[in-house]
Amino acid sequence: MGGQRNIVWHEASITKEERRKKYKHRSFILWFTGLSASGKSSIANAFARWLFEHEKQSYVLDGDNIRHGLNSDLGFNEHDRKENIRRIGEVSKLFVDSGQIVLSAFISPYCQDRDSVRQLVEKGEFLEVYVKCSLEECEKRDPKGLYQKARNHEIPHFTGISAPYEEPLHPEIILDTEKYSIEECVQQLSSNLINLGLI
């Protein structure tokens, strides 16, 4: 901790508000949470394409991709999951400061961890998007074969099987992927954000 006394925050020469004015939209975090195979990454990437086509600055942070680099040193026990989300929260905050819309797609099973990311940014800069899909449906989809491995005890600490998932209590947006297609979810998302005056 001693070394941190010598670290001083350096103010940026370009403010968040200046960037927002130039990009003509707000910057914020869309935090997609839900079970594995619920459709988080699919919706985040489809919506990123929609934003790109509408000339909005955005970037997708995906759970699997981040674990290849930034968080390659972390496992899946409760402590490592919390550290995974803490790091992503800090990275997401940097994107918000840069004037971009960040689409973070992570199982993020614990309410407390998601709330801790919310606390990192200003009010209105964090929107929790619950990608709702039952465990039964996610297991049917199982595109990576992970549920089958978890049922066979090949994967420990697997969310929904051998580790808990805490559903969001008050998400800003709910996307039900059992009822609606990816395209319909993108439409719902864009309508919500337009109504909120964010894009």
Question: Biggest sheet, strands in spatial order?
Answer: 2-3-1-4-5
Mean pLDDT: 90
Kindly report how far apart the N and C termini lie.
Answer: 41 Å
Number of strands: 5
The amount of beta strand, in percent, is 5-15%
Structural class designation: alpha/beta
Rg is 17 Å
* Topology order in helix (H) and strand (E) letters: HEHEHHEHEHHEH
What percentage of residues falls in helices of 4 or more residues? Answer: 40-55%
Please work out how many helical segments DSSP would assign.
Answer: 8
Largest sheet: 5 strands, parallel
Tell me the overall shape: globular
Low-pLDDT stretches are none
Give a quick rundown of the structure.
This protein is α/β, with parallel strands linked by helices. It has helices at residues 16-23, 40-53, 63-68, 78-97, 111-120, 135-141, 146-151, 182-195, and strands at 29-33, 58-62, 101-105, 126-132, 173-176. It has a 5-stranded parallel β-sheet, sandwiched between helices.
Structure description:
This protein has helices at residues 16-23, 40-53, 63-68, 78-97, 111-120, 135-141, 146-151, 182-195, and strands spanning 29-33, 58-62, 101-105, 126-132, 173-176. The protein has 199 residues and is an alpha/beta fold. It has a 5-stranded parallel β-sheet, with helices on both faces.
Essential attributes:
199 residues; alpha/beta; five-stranded parallel β-sheet; 5 strands; globular
Topology:
Blueprint: H1 16-23, E1 29-33, H2 40-53, E2 58-62, H3 63-68, H4 78-97, E3 101-105, H5 111-120, E4 126-132, H6 135-141, H7 146-151, E5 173-176, H8 182-195
Parallel strand pairs: 1-3, 1-4, 2-3, 4-5
